[in-house]
Design a protein that fits this description.
Blueprint (H helix, E strand, L loop, with lengths): L6 H17 L20 H23 L16 H12 L4 H21 L2 H5 L15 H7 L2 H16 L1
Helix pairs in contact: 1-4, 1-7, 2-3, 2-4
């Protein structure tokens, strides 16, 4: 996992990965949004739904803690050993939207994340144990949580969409 020297480097990485990811959907027809292809584990709609779900959770963890709510990650209904069911929940929650709408929703989530980062001081972003929801045995600082829910999946899921389009 990369180490970012400052919030500018983190936000630039998010922007770059997101723009490249989102662009992959430009030439996918709406009629193919739910088409599952051999060797690819998600349809284009599921791919976007997954991203919307995780970016939304990231924002909700932060919002809930700031509002005095005890955060249970990933959610009170789903445990870390039941992520498949959580992903199915994402697909059901966002899969009825068109690709255009899913892309708009994800864009809004990414913008919210970028604004959130901009308003964090460096200690909150780069030092561990600054948020209860982010305090785990691994003691990750917030930037790592942000990275694994933005940059990393935008890159890996971009590759999945590229493969999906080639088949």
């Amino acid at each position: 996992m990369p180490v970012y020297k400052d919030k500018k480097e983190l936000t630039e990485a998010i922007k770059k990965a997101y723009i490249l990811y989102d662009k992959e959907f430009d030439d996918i027809n709406e009629s193919e949004k739910d088409l599952l292809k051999t060797g690819i584990d998600k349809t284009p709609s599921q791919n976007l739904s997954y991203q919307i779900g995780w970016t939304g959770l990231l924002l909700s963890w932060e919002s809930d803690e700031l509002n005095g709510i005890n955060v249970k990650t990933p959610t009170p209904e789903f445990k870390w050993n039941n992520l498949k069911s959580l992903h199915q929940f994402f697909y059901k929650s966002y899969g009825s939207y068109s690709l255009k709408e899913q892309r708009r929703i994800l864009s809004e989530k990414v913008t919210e994340i970028l604004c959130w980062i901009e308003n964090l001081d460096d200690d909150l972003l780069f030092l561990s144990e600054k948020r209860k929801w982010a305090t785990t045995p691994a003691k990750w600082p917030l930037y790592k949580w942000i990275h694994i829910n933005t940059v990393a999946p935008f890159k890996s899921f971009r590759n999945q969409i590229r493969k999906w389009k080639k088949i």
